[in-house]
């Protein structure tokens, strides 16, 4: 059996891991693909390998904002582990790549047959809930520059690369701020030698410095994941 790239699947007992991988299929997810809208019925769950997904909220006709991010460390479709089929948030592929996709019915069957799998995935639900709460407080209380630094670190963690493509417009949309705010914050990070930003291409030059510039929310998220899922 091939080694699982996804951290949650890798933690499972080999029998459970084999059952999930046999029930699913490897798919390539393109940038900008919408994987779910609030209120939709969940048809599939996704375990990212090298792609990552933004979780976005916002009412009809209102500005939207990213409240969570899912990469190789997690899964999309955690609501099924709670027995809920409705999609809670807009899910958008932010970084293209591969994922294991499993239809809802076989996933729920595999989950019901394994208390050990239920424990691993329920712990991740807690991590995701914590990330959502942290994002809400971060948006309300922290300035744009440390929030941008946090967001770039989260993206780098899931992109598994020092370089990625992000426009000012997209960053403003994800952070829920005006584009001029992103321009100013990115300019400061670049002048401080932490990143290089040109025509939407971002390269992290100083990871340690970027962590120091980020708000405490980034470290909080990491500690929660390590302590809960590990």
Short descriptors:
single chain, about 230 residues, alpha+beta, Jelly Rolls, Arc Repressor Mutant, subunit A, 2 domains, four-stranded antiparallel β-sheet, three-stranded antiparallel β-sheet, 9 helices, about 45% helix, globular, Env_Response_Regulators, transcription regulation, WH_DNA-bd_sf
Question: What report would you give on this structure?
Answer:
By secondary structure, the protein is of the alpha+beta class. It folds into 2 domains: 7-138, Jelly Rolls (Sandwich), CATH 2.60.120.10; 143-214, Winged helix-like DNA-binding domain superfamily/Winged helix DNA-binding domain (Arc Repressor Mutant, subunit A, Orthogonal Bundle), CATH 1.10.10.10. Helix content is 47%, strand content 21%. It has 9 helices and 10 strands. It has helices at 7-11, 14-23, 104-112, 115-141, 144-159, 168-175, 179-191, 207-213, 217-228, and strands at residues 25-29, 34-36, 44-48, 52-57, 65-70, 90-95, 97-103, 163-165, 195-198, 201-204. The protein has a 4-stranded antiparallel β-sheet. The protein is globular, with a radius of gyration of 18 Å. The mean pLDDT is 93. It comes from Pseudaquabacterium terrae. InterPro entries: cNMP-bd_dom_sf, Env_Response_Regulators, HTH_CRP, RmlC-like_jellyroll, WH_DNA-bd_sf. Pfam families: HTH_Crp_2. Residues 147-212 form the HTH crp-type domain. This is Crp/Fnr family transcriptional regulator.
